[in-house]
Amino acid sequence: MSLILLSPPASEPVTLAELKQHLRVTHTDEDALITGVLVAAVRAVEARGGLACMPQQWRLTLDAPPMETLHLPIAPVASIDAITVTDGEGAPQPVDASVYEFASGSPGRLRPAGPWPQPAPKIDGVRIDFTAGYADAGAVPEPLKQAVKILAGYFYETREAAHETRVYTVPQSVDALLAPYREFRL
After folding, report:
1. Which partner from 40, 65, 90, 126 sits 20 to 30 angstroms from 97, CA to CA?
2. What is this structure's pTM?
3. Is residue 48 located within the same domain as residue 60?
């Protein structure tokens, strides 16, 4: 199983102006740096929480079709864009929507509703393309935006991973803000 980003988000859930206000930065001298820490903070929050803040397309590849309910690894899931199975000639063949059921949200779930065609290759023969993320920046929950701002502020102030007398860690408030959005499986 592998997960591949097909199409990154077109924008971030926090604007440069919002982050600069949070950082109390009024000049434009470091806009490129602040934009960089903003993007890094968003990606770190998404990775830590198994989340997609803004709409983005992903591909999950499997060796075989799912036999039971499959929880998609990034939430919230907005849609299944395509499912294909690779045939004996190596060509992707579309899987008819009648052979699976899909539930969007957190987590997105996919369950077989009938027999799936079997892929010819043994590795990565099934491709599930899906869109994950909140509809727009206004739909992203405020606690996630706050986690991004806190982490971006931390990256801005602490530009090195360690110092000779101290190792830096992610602020605990980031994990506390992410906790309600993480998926836990039993």
Report:
1. 90
2. 0.87
3. no
